[in-house]
Amino acid sequence: xxxxxxxxxxxxxxxxxxxxxxxxxxxxxxxxxxxxxxxxxxxxxxxxxxxxxxxxxxxxxxxxxxxxxxxxxxxxxxxxxxxxxxxxxxxxxxxxxxxxxxxxxxxxxxxxxxxxxxxxxxxxxxxxxxxxxxxxxxxxxxxxxxxxxxxxxxxxxxxxxxxxxxxxxxxxxxxxxxxxxxxxxxxxxxxxxxxxxxxxxxxxxxxxxxxxxxxxxxxxxxxxxxxxxxxxxxxxxxxxxxxxxxxxxxxxxxxxx
Length: 257
Hints:
Elements: E1 3-7, H1 16-29, E2 34-39, E3 51-53, H2 59-64, E4 73-75, E5 80-83, H3 91-96, H4 105-111, E6 119-124, H5 130-138, E7 141-146, H6 150-167, E8 183-190, H7 194-210, E9 215-223, H8 226-234, H9 238-241, H10 252-256
Parallel strand pairs: 1-6, 1-7, 2-5, 2-6, 7-8, 8-9
Antiparallel strand pairs: 3-4, 4-5
C-alpha cells in the first residue's frame, strides 16, 4: 500500500513543487511506482515533467467524483504518473466549503488506488486553505521546505504552528477525529554563507520545542545550486542533471538518495 506524502507550507515560493517533483522522480528511477498529485492552483507540478499520455480529467474530477478514473496521466519517466491540476480558477476552494464532509474526498479517492503505487506525493498551495487541509488529511507524512532566511524561517515557524493548532480538535470533543500526520521540515536552498548556516542551526534547535514536538527538522538539506533551475527548465529530474560534485556541498543525486 502506498505511503502518501503531502508537501505543504503556509508560504509560497519555498520549493514545494521542486521537492515534490525531485523526490518523485528519484523514487521512480529506483523502480518504485510513484503518483504525483498537483493540488496547487498555479499548476506548476503539472508541467514540471513532459507528459506522454494525457487524460481528460484531473484534480477537480478526482475530488468531486471521489474517483481516479481517467484522471491519471503518464510522464516520460518510467514508473512516474501524475494527476494534473485543471483548476486554475481555484473552483475547488468553493466546492470544498459546501460541506464539511468534502474535505475528506481527496483521501477517499486516493485510497482507491493506494495498492497500485508505492508512493503518492501531493503538491499544495503556498497558503493555509481548506484545500491544504484536505491534502494534510489525505497524507501519512508531511514535508515542509524551509528557506534559511531570517524572515522566511520566522514566518514558517509561526505559520506552521498556527496551521497545526487549527487542525487540533476542540478541547473536550468526545468524538474521534483523524490524526494529524507527522511533519518534517526540510532546509531548502541552503548556501554556505554564515547567515544561512546560523539560521539553519537556529531552526533545528528551536522548532522542535516551539511546536511541542509536533515538527522535526530533517538532517538532510537541499543546497542552493544552479542545477535545480537547470533541471526545471529542461523538464528533467535534477538527480540526473547533477550526479557528482566537487567540494563539501552534496550533489543533487546525493541529496535525494
